[in-house]
Amino acid sequence: MPTATQTLNISVNNLSVTYSNAKLALYNASCTVEPGTITALVGPNGSGKSTLFKSIMGFLKPTQGQIHVGGLTVQKAQKKQLMAYVPQSDEVDWNFPVSVYDVVMMGRYGYMNLLRIPGSKDRRLVMESLERVGMIDFRHHQIGELSGGQKKRAFLARALAQEGKVILLDEPFTGVDVKTEKRIIDLLIQLREEGHTILVSTHDLASVLTFCDRTILLNQTILASGTTEETFTEENLSMTFDGLPISSLPQMYHTSEVDR
Ligand SMILES: Nc1ncnc2c1ncn2[C@@H]1O[C@H](COP(=O)(O)OP(=O)(O)OP(=O)(O)O)[C@@H](O)[C@H]1O
Description:
Keywords: ATP-binding, Nucleotide-binding, Transport. Residues 10-245 form the ABC transporter domain. It holds the Pfam family ABC_tran. This is Manganese transport system ATP-binding protein MntA. Belongs to the ABC transporter superfamily. The protein is of the alpha/beta class. The chain has 2 domains: 9-82 and 168-254, Rossmann fold; 100-163, no CATH class. It is 33% helix and 22% strand. It is built from 9 helices and 10 strands. Strands 6-7-8-3-9-10 form a 6-stranded mixed sheet, sandwiched between helices. Strands 2-1-4-5 form a 4-stranded antiparallel sheet. Helix 3 (100-106) runs parallel beside helix 5 (148-162) and helix 4 packs across helix 5. The longest helix is centred in the last third of the chain and has 16 residues, at 178-193. Bound molecules: adenosine-5'-triphosphate. Adenosine-5'-triphosphate (ATP) binds next to helix 1. Adenosine-5'-triphosphate binds at residues 19, 21, 23, 25, 43, 45-51.
């Protein structure tokens, strides 16, 4: 049973995910995200990175295979608030009339009862998380008013407020300037030192070498995985980015989105 101080791994075994339109997004994917590491998830557009994140979060039901977080099934890990997720920007409805403070407070919902009345700990953690990402002065702003980098930081603050031991970030550097990217990377390094396990997808291949301990290369299945040094080879990258999609595989698996 994971304790508050333990670092947690993510284990993915033979995962296949097919969308309801019969689109096979992942096939027989197996990998381990080692505890207490920053691990990069790298692959071309449409290679299944977001699908893997959503499967780890329990938003998608695999057609085959299992995922465990800290030895627990995704459902049990979710109930214990072990995973926090920073989604891709285009997955968020930025017109939804909600303040930055409210977005970050959503990270505390899993700890509240149905009435969702925040307690002093909830309010303190929200303020601390906003402070940590440098967004305290924006707390009363509507999320739609934020720049790309501020939006990312607001959602990162939500993940911090949630106190998940495992943090999943789907393209946190897309649309952010160099300074914000550096700020996010510094924060991820601090979080790793505090014992978090971090999985981050990015198209910024150069930055992977600077801060990711390990790398997973994905193109509909896991093509390589290991330390960044051993995985980030020209041969592996060309296999990942030039390789043909597994379109010849049988389209027989069906995945349903989990009602939330
Ligand atoms: N809701 C959905 N219904 C049907 N197909 C989907 C759905 N979501 C994703 N797909 C398809 O599944 C495949 C994997 O998509 P996914 O979003 O996981 O890739 P990705 O690696 O995150 O891409 P990107 O780098 O562009 O964000 C793609 O072919 C995509 O078109």
